[in-house]
Specification:
This protein has helices at about 10-35, 40-65, 85-130. The chain is about 75% helix and about 0% strand.
Length: about 130
């Protein structure tokens, strides 16, 4: 008989991700509207530069913490035979701990990607279909 191995949906993580995406998006768009209202070009340049630097910093920190972008959690058989069982367990737990610590950074990376994607759609796609680009 086959067991049901599906994981339960993590609603807490979902709402946390949604709150971070909404917060970053609303902060960016609100400041953008404020600078546009007062015709502040310098503020816009500082905002976009800060946005790019924050997004780049999150990606860099995530990469450094995880020692790469797609390092899988190793199995006991994947590790060298010279290591004892306790050392192998310590290595596996260290990888899991790094992934756990980097999860908030990944949420902010998703928020920056969503905001940037919306900006691209607003600046290029919508005017293209309107015929004003």
């Amino acid at each position: 008989m086959k067991e049901n191995t599906r994981k339960k949906f993590n609603w807490r993580l979902f709402w946390c991700l949604l709150a971070i995406v909404a917060g970053v998006f609303l902060l960016y768009r609100g400041l953008l509207a404020l600078f546009a209202m007062y015709d502040n070009v310098l503020g816009y340049k500082i905002l976009t530069t800060g946005y790019v630097l924050a997004a780049s910093g999150c990606v860099l920190a995530y990469t450094l913490i995880n020692r790469g972008l797609s390092v899988p959690v190793p199995e006991y058989d994947d590790l060298p035979d010279e290591l004892t069982y306790d050392e192998k367990t310590a290595v596996i737990e260290a990888v899991r701990e790094r992934r756990r610590r980097s999860r908030p950074l990944l949420m902010f990376i998703f928020a920056f990607i969503f905001t940037f994607g919306f900006e691209v759609i607003e600046l290029f796609t919508i005017p293209f279909f309107r015929g004003t680009l």
